[in-house]
Every structure is written in structure tokens, then in C-alpha cells.
């Protein structure tokens, strides 16, 4: 027979692991989003410099 405290401890550990996975996933998405925004901005600046700086 398993102690109730062992079950609770296991559930808490699983929840902490899931939180960590979600936190890492959010951070990875945020980093990818930032890279994409920087790339878009750089592309826009490159287009503007080729077009003589006119706003689109």
C-alpha cells in the first residue's frame, strides 16, 4: 500500500515538470518571434533603401 504523501509528492513533481516544459516552450516561441520580427524589420529597411527610402 502506497502512502498518500508519496502520491501527492509524485503529482506535485509531475506538475512542476509540466510547468517547466511549458515555460521552456514559451521561451523558445518568444525567441523565434523576436528573430522573425528582426528579420522582417531588416528586410523592410533593405527594401526601403533600394526604393530610395519611400514609405510603403
Could you describe the largest sheet, including whether it forms a barrel? none
Overall strand count: 0
Distance between the termini: 71 Å
Order of helices and strands: H
The helix content, as a percent range, equals: over 70%
Query: What would you call the shape?
Result: rod-shaped
Strand residue content: under 5%
Structural class: mainly alpha
Uncertain stretches: none
Please compute the radius of gyration using only Cα atoms. Answer: 24 Å
Mean pLDDT: 92
- The total tally of domains equals 1
Tally of DSSP helical segments: 1
Keywords:
56 residues; mainly alpha; 1 helix; 0% strand
Summarize the structure.
This protein is an all-alpha fold and 56 residues long.
Amino acid at each position: 500500500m502506497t502512502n498518500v504523501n508519496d502520491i501527492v509528492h509524485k503529482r506535485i513533481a509531475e506538475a512542476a515538470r509540466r510547468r517547466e516544459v511549458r515555460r521552456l516552450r514559451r521561451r523558445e516561441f518568444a525567441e523565434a518571434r523576436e528573430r522573425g520580427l528582426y528579420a522582417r524589420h531588416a528586410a523592410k529597411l533593405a527594401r526601403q533603401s533600394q526604393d530610395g527610402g519611400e514609405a510603403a
